[in-house]
Amino acid sequence: xxxxxxxxxxxxxxxxxxxxxxxxxxxxxxxxxxxxxxxxxxxxxxxxxxxxxxxxxxxxxxxxxxxxxxxxxxxxxxxxxxxxxxxxxxxxxxxxxxxxxxxxxxxxxxxxxxxxxxxxxxxxxxxxxxxxxxxxxxxxxxxxxxxxxxxxxxxxxxxxxxxxxxxxxxxxxxxxxxxxxxxxxxxxxxxxxxxxxxxxxxxxxxxxxxxxxxxxxxxxxxxxxxxxxxxxxxxxxxxxxxxxxxxxxxxxxxxxxxxxxxxxxxxxxxxxxxxxxxxxxxxxxxxxxxxxxxxx
Amino acid sequence: xxxxxxxxxxxxxxxxxxxxxxxxxxxxxxxxxxxxxxxxxxxxxxxxxxxxxxxxxxxxxxxxxxxxxxxxxxxxxxxxxxxxxxxxxxxxxxxxxxxxxxxxxxxxxxxxxxxxxxxxxxxxxxxxxxxxxxxxxxxxxxxxxxxxxxxxxxxxxxxxxxxxxxxxxxxxxxxxxxxxxxxxxxxxxxxxxxxxxxxxxxxxxxxxxxxxxxxxxxxxxxxxxxxxxxxxxxxxxxxxxxxxxxxxxxxxxxxxxxxxxxxxxxxxxxxxxxxxxxxxxxxxx
Lengths: 296, 285
Prior knowledge:
By secondary structure, chain A is an all-alpha fold. In chain A, about 75% of the residues lie in helices and about 0% in strands. The two termini of chain A are about 40 Å apart. Chain B has a domain at about 70-240: MetI-like (MetI-like fold). The longest helix of chain B has about 35 residues, at about 250-280. Chain B is globular, with a radius of gyration of 24 Å. In chain B, helix 7 (about 145-170) runs antiparallel to helix 10.
């Protein structure tokens, strides 16, 4: 018996130990070590560096471009949550419940596709769309009598252009995610509501939303991090953060501190800020969206 | 019996259908632009948005071959396949191990280990960029493809564990117990019973990891300098789109088409599994 327990113990230690150690060494420890590097002037080329205290933090906090990139990150995050999520959610309800829409699986497959395409390609595709003289968007706007917009070249529109691309790409992803939640709600609950004469809107708000609250919460939670990555991928190709940092998001701002100035210490300080920011956002979402969960 | 009742016409359905068709157009047009541009010469691109190429049999192969040669996409493809596949194997192996332990072994600290991996879904990997760079330099792994494999694996583990754990939980325990009664060891039960049953989770998590690895380029830009080591995503960046340099759009979009071909194929073959994996792992996780 004892031998059996011993071998079970060895099994568990190996099976869990290998991934935990690997993931710890190459992911979690680097993230925490970022705290230390943010207090140094590590420049990447030489392994020698010195301790500079809070200098990097003072420098980023004094840089208006940094704050612009933080604000732009929040614009990206909330624009998606406010525009993309409700659209995806409503579409999810329609595609799940309207059985008369025979071709609904085609829409789902089509809408989901962009979220599997690399942001790099998405961004290049949209560069052709945004082209001020040869792009489709300005041509369409011209047809309805609106003048040409300098999508990527003007500081007003650059970040909006980035947000449009991200929303366009993520719509199908959240559609499919929400559809899974919506279709999990048992049909019997709707049937009793139908007997009470509740309208479709009322059913959606009183039944579907509360019963899929966890799904909505989880997507808001995970989008905190996705927005960081998507922001970088889109900005890097589409605008390089320009013009004049108008469309910089925090991740691309961090990247350019390394790419342009090889300032790894400074980038690390931004990374630490980013880590705190995402964790605080995650905790805030968990707290604000706390509701009793319904078992069904 | 009465399932095939003819449903009456409904304005709601018509409105929904019109919205869906409009949305489909919005989704399709950028792709259409990409493929259309790839078939045109640069002059034809500037001649007009919707003009069709004069001689598609000449301009399309020319764009594709010029893209392939100019960006050295042959080497890039080779590197991408090597890096993505190696990282994928490591990710799936470790993901399955962790998922089995967390999902099925009723560990004392199950919640702790579950959160341990979940943190990776909340904190962007970029946070650890500087220390990773330091470690890569210190270990002499800078400018090697090995460091990409290591980093990609680390980045993909959280989501893989997340998807696989909820799948592992859903496997009924009878099969395993029967094997134990027959005297099978834990190793044997894991390898011969659990792993085959977890195939759908492997497919779903694997596709996501592969697509991520295939399209990643930031770590490539950070860690690689030798052109012959670059991945195909980095090859695309050689066209300097958006930097003010004059771009040959036909060739650039041609390179994009070559790049997303595997993505398109993977999607067409596995689309139901991709969506299934996304939903199975996440909804009641």
